[in-house]
Design brief:
Blueprint lengths: L7 E3 L3 H12 L4 E3 L6 E5 L3 H11 L8 E3 L3 H7 L4 H10 L4 E6 L8 H4 L4 E5 L4 H7 L6 E2 L14 H8 L5 E3 L11 E6 L2 E6 L5 H8 L26 E2 L9 E5 L7 E2 L6 H17 L4 E4 L8 H12 L1
Parallel strand pairs: 1-8, 2-8, 4-6, 5-9, 11-14, 12-13, 12-14
Antiparallel strand pairs: 2-3, 3-7, 4-7, 5-6, 9-10
Bound molecules: threonylcarbamoyladenylate and magnesium ion.
Threonylcarbamoyladenylate binds next to strand 5 and strand 6.
Function: Required for the formation of a threonylcarbamoyl group on adenosine at position 37 (t(6)A37) in tRNAs that read codons beginning with adenine.
Pfam family, one: Sua5_yciO_yrdC
Catalytic activity: L-threonine + hydrogencarbonate + ATP = L-threonylcarbamoyladenylate + diphosphate + H2O
């Protein structure tokens, strides 16, 4: 796909959605808006379309993709949903939650989507443009975050244009992502549940419905997105900084001021929504180092600190 022209930007109206749908139906790659981050989408039931996702991202093929759907019936056709899954789906879908569930045979997506695992990751996004798009299909869309593998995730269409602009056919413009960090990934095991990636749905939210999580050592292989280095801005990142040093671009929070701030009022939802935009600005800044103010660990802070630790690794 090397010599491709820059992606068309499609407006978030009926015409733009129809164009995106037509490209996707034909097996092409389209960057799509969700409430968390932009996704690099292709139909999940076509070998070539899914292979194109891995190629465009430079993603290792052992790292499985999330399948995105509009209807609970589609989830039931792809996976085994028990009573816990139905309770979570009722509470948090459509929304920023991904469930890792046992696959239902025969597998309804191509094997590359699950990377050969006996489980499949499913999500029903709430972004109205993405929902309108998904409602046009009877197949799921596989979509990882629309960034080159290992780099900062995209929370705005410009971010996609910068990193994958000549590797996708189009970008459906849904504006800035309101949540700003990727969905919470929850694995439902026979003996309990586990958060594989913290996100907008917090551990407390899930515990309120299912009781406390499994007490196990998290294995890193099963959610390869949990690899230590990820979301990398291409320069060193110093965390828990109270004040910028002379060579640092400072990302502030609350009372700690900066060149930019995640949230002047110390609001964690605002900080999550602004996180990747601030990291992109830090990556583009002239200073060789990025410093980030301390972020509390409660609620959404767990997801923000998880991403920051990986950006700094
Ligand atoms: O918010 C999101 O989840 C965004 C938007 C576009 O929906 N997508 C996203 O995709 O973050 P990606 O590919 O960047 O991250 C998906 C994560 C990866 O860490 C992958 O390893 C994990 O989901 N995953 C996928 N299938 C899995 C499975 N069967 N078991 C465990 N982890 C799985
Ligand atoms: Mg990602």
């Amino acid at each position: 796909m090397g010599g491709k022209h820059t992606a068309d930007i499609l407006p978030p109206d009926a015409g733009g959605i129809a164009q995106a749908a037509e490209l996707l139906r034909a097996g092409r790659l389209v960057a799509v808006p969700t409430e968390t981050v932009y996704g690099l989408a292709a139909r999940a039931d076509r070998v070539e379309a899914v292979a194109a996702i891995y190629r465009a991202k430079g993603r290792p093929d052992f790292n499985p993709l999330i399948s995105h759907l509009a209807q609970i019936e589609q989830a039931e056709a792809l996976a085994m949903l028990d009573e816990r899954a139905m309770r979570l789906a009722d509470a948090f879908w459509p929304g920023p939650m991904t469930l890792v569930l046992p696959v239902r045979e025969p597998l309804g997506v191509v094997p590359a989507v699950t990377a050969g695992l006996p489980t499949i990751a499913l999500r029903m996004p709430s972004h109205p443009v993405m929902r309108a798009l998904l409602q046009q299909f009877d197949f799921p869309l596989a979509a990882p975050s629309a960034n080159r593998s290992g780099f900062i995730s995209p929370s705005r269409p410009e971010h996609v244009l910068q990193s994958l602009g000549n590797r996708v056919d189009a970008i459906l413009d849904g504006g800035p992502c309101v949540q700003g960090v990727e969905s919470t990934i929850i694995a439902l095991r026979p003996d309990g549940w586990q958060i594989l990636r913290p996100g907008p749905i917090t551990q407390e939210d899930v515990s309120a419905l299912l009781g406390p999580p499994l007490q196990v050592e998290t294995d890193t292989i099963e959610a390869p997105g949990q690899m230590t280095s990820h979301y990398a801005p291409g320069k060193p990142v110093r965390l828990h900084a109270e004040q910028a040093r002379s060579d640092e671009f400072m990302i502030g929070f609350g009372l700690v001021a900066g060149d930019v701030t995640l949230s002047e009022t110390g609001d964690l939802a605002e900080a999550a929504a602004r996180l990747y935009q601030c990291l992109h600005e830090g990556a583009a800044a002239s200073q060789p180092v990025i410093a980030v103010a301390p972020i509390p660990q409660h609620g959404l802070g767990a997801a923000i600190n998880d991403r920051l630790r990986r950006a700094a690794a």
